[in-house]
Amino acid sequence: MGDENIKKTLKRAWNYKWIYIMLLPVMAYFIVFRYVPMYGITIAFKDYNIFKGVFGSPWVGVKVFNKIFANKNFWSSIRNTFLLNLSALAVSFPLTIVVALMLNEVAGARFKKITQSILYLPHFISWVVVAGIATNLFALQEGTINAVLQKIGIGPIPFLSSEGWWIVTYVICNVWKEIGWGTIIYLAALTGVDETLYEASYLDGATKFQRLIYITIPSIKSIIVTMLILNISKMMSIGLDAPLLLGNAKVMGVSEVISTYTYRIGIEKAQYSQSTAIGLFQSVVNIIILVAADKFAKAIGEEGII
Question: Is 198 exposed, middle or buried (0-12, 13-18, 19+ CB in 10 A)?
Answer without folding.
Answer: middle
